[in-house]
């Protein structure tokens, strides 16, 4: 049997005109992400219409039309293979609800691919104050996307075409703001490409002889190469968290005739085994796992990333609900928190945020109203240095450390110990008003089990 | 390389040491290198720093032929002994670290700013001619029933009755979860400005006889 390739999620970010869809399309088209039969059909049609020379563009356009009509489901999951990895690409939409989805959603991005247009005027617009480039990159950093790749796109449209001077200018500009956000530029590869003509995408181009190749400093030695595909193959695989304690936030709880109670959720860390005793928080219920199933197949052990259902003994459906977190009762069991300290960034709030502000927090599958009890300090986003002690108000663009109190029991963790249980989106006025990562948690003393709280300082 | 702060006594001291075994900053004839360093010194070195004073007076004598001296001026940091950085104020000016991320970029010089303005204006002009595309996203939803006996075709029927401006339902399939439970995976295309996931969730959860919860399985730009 062929060994399964490691799975990596890539989120493609960039300004509206950066050409990210074309770039994404090109990768998928060339790396076998499109159904072969469909591709042949389209290619034949393109040839018949005398569009062979623009085959790629034409096929992409057809696919886009198909997507708009929602004809195939599988097209909404963009997948392709590199030598080492199976990649799922998320082409980040400008939709206001996307950010929340990126935080609580099922597919947390491992790598950010920032596409910047080098074309005249487009680069300037993309990185300008109103451009999306900075905001996207900042969010990616805040949400723990530590690896970022920069594609300097549309090199065919610079003046003159394939200009080294323009590439250098863009690298300088983007490098400087990535540094301001917090990225270490020595680890960031910059690749000059054209998503349209395919320069440096899959194969190295002859048109930019001045390009010496990209470099990236990594933990295990340095990586270098010439094409975007090589960059994607050189990334560091996401760390598997199978050896950490179990965390499994519940999505749903079912009552199945003849079986009993079946909670369902995705394993964020650790392993789930039949026979294990689980602790649910904040429900404060313990139960033994009788059996596990995934896609209707029985499993003895389930691993991080698996979306599983499991059968538990002696617990009624009404005692559990979406937002509860299951963990091993013997190994750092989950507990609800009385308060937690988080670093937040205010995004789209129309006015000012004061102590007492109570938006709804979406964290893993939980959805709980929480009070900003104390605005502790206003921070410089890049350095994390304190700008102001106990600020009176916060505004859009501000970063701050805030003590937050959930108004009903809730189980969250510090971002450091369990990343996906430690990041959240704050929602108010039907939009995402803030995003945050949890620095430390104050576990509820009322919990039945005493244990060492894994608090990160 | 550099002399430290040439405006301070310590900087002049470094310069003095440097010149104790050299006639000029670079090479064996007066050059632009000497002019660059000379110009960054505010007052003649004191008499106890004899090497620096000797050099200072010598370069001063070239005062009216300064521009005709050979060589190209380089930043101060390129001259002097290795291992000493240039900290002369007004010297190297690439320290833009402290500007606010969303703040104005007023540290740029006028030329760069003008160039940027020009390019932006051209971009805006081109952009206004292009027909504005309606931004759309493709969203894949997981809709979960209450148990294995929920009528999934009825559930799907209900979901498809939801109609909104800017919403188009796409294909769907049933995905096995476990223990006989299936979830409905259904695609839709939304106009970004008109339809949000919150609104969809609200409408879908309203069919509370059939639907337990809804999750977003995939969210992409079209």
Automatic annotation (TrEMBL), chain A:
Keywords: Cytoplasm, Elongation factor, GTP-binding, Nucleotide-binding, Protein biosynthesis
Localization: Cytoplasm
GO MF annotation list: GTP binding; GTPase activity; translation elongation factor activity
Sequence ranges assigned to domain Tr-type G in this UniProt record: 5-240
KW GTP-binding (keyword) present: yes
Top-rank taxon: Eukaryota
Gene Ontology cellular component list: cytoplasm
Keyword Protein biosynthesis annotated: yes
UniProt catalytic activity: GTP + H2O = GDP + phosphate + H(+)
Family: Belongs to the TRAFAC class translation factor GTPase superfamily. Classic translation factor GTPase family. EF-Tu/EF-1A subfamily.
NCBIfam families, alphabetized: EF-1_alpha (TIGR00483), PRK12317.1 (NF008969)
Function: Translation elongation factor that catalyzes the GTP-dependent binding of aminoacyl-tRNA (aa-tRNA) to the A-site of ribosomes during the elongation phase of protein synthesis. Base pairing between the mRNA codon and the aa-tRNA anticodon promotes GTP hydrolysis, releasing the aa-tRNA from EEF1A1 and allowing its accommodation into the ribosome. The growing protein chain is subsequently transferred from the P-site peptidyl tRNA to the A-site aa-tRNA, extending it by one amino acid through ribosome-catalyzed peptide bond formation. This protein promotes the GTP-dependent binding of aminoacyl-tRNA to the A-site of ribosomes during protein biosynthesis.
Protein name: Elongation factor 1-alpha
From TrEMBL, chain B:
GO cellular component, one term: cytosol
InterPro entries tied to this protein: eEF-1beta-like_sf, EF-1_beta_acid_region_euk, EF1B_bsu/dsu, EF1B_bsu/dsu_GNE, Glutathione-S-Trfase_C_sf, Transl_elong_EF1B/ribsomal_bS6, Transl_elong_EF1B_B/D_CS
Domain Translation elongation factor EF1B beta/delta subunit guanine nucleotide exchange: 136-222
UniProt domain Elongation factor 1 beta central acidic region eukaryote: residue ranges: 101-127
Gene3D superfamilies from the UniProt entry: 1.20.1050.130, 3.30.70.60
PROSITE patterns: EF1BD_1, EF1BD_2
Cross-referenced Pfam families: EF-1_beta_acid, EF1_GNE
Protein keywords: Elongation factor, Protein biosynthesis
Compositional bias ranges of the Acidic residues kind: 92-110
GO molecular function: guanyl-nucleotide exchange factor activity; translation elongation factor activity
Ranges where the record places region Disordered: 70-111
Subunit note: EF-1 is composed of 4 subunits: alpha, beta (alpha subunit of the eEF1B subcomplex), delta (beta subunit of the eEF1B subcomplex), and gamma (gamma subunit of the eEF1B subcomplex). Interacts with elongation factor EEF1A1.
Physiological role: Catalytic subunit of the guanine nucleotide exchange factor (GEF) (eEF1B subcomplex) of the eukaryotic elongation factor 1 complex (eEF1). Stimulates the exchange of GDP for GTP on elongation factor 1A (eEF1A), probably by displacing GDP from the nucleotide binding pocket in eEF1A.
Similarity field: Belongs to the EF-1-beta/EF-1-delta family.
Matches recorded under PANTHER family: EF-HAND AND COILED-COIL DOMAIN-CONTAINING FAMILY MEMBER (PTHR11595), ELONGATION FACTOR 1-BETA (PTHR11595:SF21)
Protein name: Elongation factor 1-beta
Organism: Gasterosteus aculeatus aculeatus
């Amino acid at each position: 049997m062929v060994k399964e390739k490691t799975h990596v999620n890539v989120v493609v970010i960039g300004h509206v005109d950066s050409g990210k869809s074309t770039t994404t399309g090109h990768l998928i088209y060339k790396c076998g992400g499109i159904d072969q039969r469909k591709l042949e059909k389209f290619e034949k049609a393109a040839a018949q219409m005398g569009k062979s020379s623009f085959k790629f563009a034409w096929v992409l356009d057809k696919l886009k039309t198909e997507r708009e009509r929602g004809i195939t489901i599988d097209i909404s999951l963009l997948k392709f293979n590199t030598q080492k990895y199976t990649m799922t690409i998320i082409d980040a939409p400008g939709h206001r609800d996307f950010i929340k989805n990126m935080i609580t959603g099922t597919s947390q991005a491992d790598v950010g691919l920032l596409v910047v247009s080098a074309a005249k005027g487009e680069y300037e617009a993309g990185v300008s104050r109103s451009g999306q480039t900075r905001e996207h990159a900042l969010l990616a950093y805040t949400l723990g996307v530590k690896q970022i790749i920069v594609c300097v796109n549309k090199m065919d449209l610079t003046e003159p075409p394939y200009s080294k001077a323009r590439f250098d200018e863009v690298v300088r500009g983007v490098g400087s703001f990535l540094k301001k956000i917090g990225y270490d530029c020595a680890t960031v590869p910059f690749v000059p490409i054209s998503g349209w003509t395919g320069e440096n995408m899959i194969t190295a181009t002859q048109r930019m002889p001045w390009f010496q190749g990209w470099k990236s400093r990594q933990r295990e030695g340095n990586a270098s190469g010439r094409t975007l595909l090589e960059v994607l193959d050189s990334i560091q695989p996401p760390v598997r968290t199978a050896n950490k304690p179990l965390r499994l936030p519940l999505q749903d709880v079912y009552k199945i005739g003849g079986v009993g109670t079946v909670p369902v959720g995705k394993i964020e860390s650790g392993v789930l085994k039949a026979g294990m005793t689980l602790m649910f928080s904040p429900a404060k219920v313990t139960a033994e796992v009788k059996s596990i199933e995934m896609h209707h197949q029985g499993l003895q052990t389930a691993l991080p990333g698996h979306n599983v259902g499991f059968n538990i003994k002696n617990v009624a459906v009404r005692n559990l609900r979406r937002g509860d977190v299951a963990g091993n009762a013997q190994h750092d069991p989950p507990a609800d928190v009385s308060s937690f300290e988080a670093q937040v960034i205010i995004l789209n709030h129309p006015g000012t945020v004061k102590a007492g502000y109570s938006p709804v927090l979406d964290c893993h599958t939980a959805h709980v109203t929480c009070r900003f009890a104390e605005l502790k300090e206003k921070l410089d986003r890049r350095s994390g240095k304190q700008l102001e002690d106990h600020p009176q108000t916060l505004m859009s663009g501000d970063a701050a450390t805030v003590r937050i109190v959930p108004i009903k029991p809730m189980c969250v963790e510090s971002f450091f110990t369990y990343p996906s249980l430690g990041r959240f989106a704050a929602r108010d006025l039907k939009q995402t008003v803030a995003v945050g990562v949890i620095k430390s948690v104050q576990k509820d003393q009322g919990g039945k089990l005493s244990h060492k709280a894994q608090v990160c300082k | 390389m550099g002399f430290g702060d040439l405006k301070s006594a310590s900087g002049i001291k470094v310069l003095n040491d440097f010149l104790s075994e050299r006639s000029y900053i670079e090479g064996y004839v007066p050059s632009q290198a000497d002019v660059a360093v000379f110009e960054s010194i505010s007052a003649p070195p004191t008499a106890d720093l004899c090497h620096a004073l000797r050099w200072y007076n010598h370069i001063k004598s070239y005062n009216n032929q300064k521009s005709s001296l050979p060589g190209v001026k380089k930043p101060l940091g390129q001259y002097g002994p290795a291992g000493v950085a240039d900290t002369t104020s007004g010297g190297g000016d690439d320290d833009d670290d402290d500007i606010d991320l969303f703040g104005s970029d007023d540290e740029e010089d006028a030329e760069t700013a003008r160039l940027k303005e020009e390019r932006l204006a051209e971009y805006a002009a081109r952009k206004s001619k292009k027909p504005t595309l309606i931004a759309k996203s493709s969203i894949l939803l997981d809709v979960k029933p209450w148990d294995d006996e929920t009528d999934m075709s009825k559930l799907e029927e209900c979901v498809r009755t939801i109609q909104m401006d800017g919403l188009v339902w796409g294909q769907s399939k049933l995905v096995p979860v476990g223990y006989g439970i299936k979830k409905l995976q259904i695609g839709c295309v939304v106009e970004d400005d008109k339809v949000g996931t919150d609104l969809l969730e609200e409408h879908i959860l309203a069919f509370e006889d059939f639907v337990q919860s809804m999750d977003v399985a995939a969210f992409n730009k079209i």
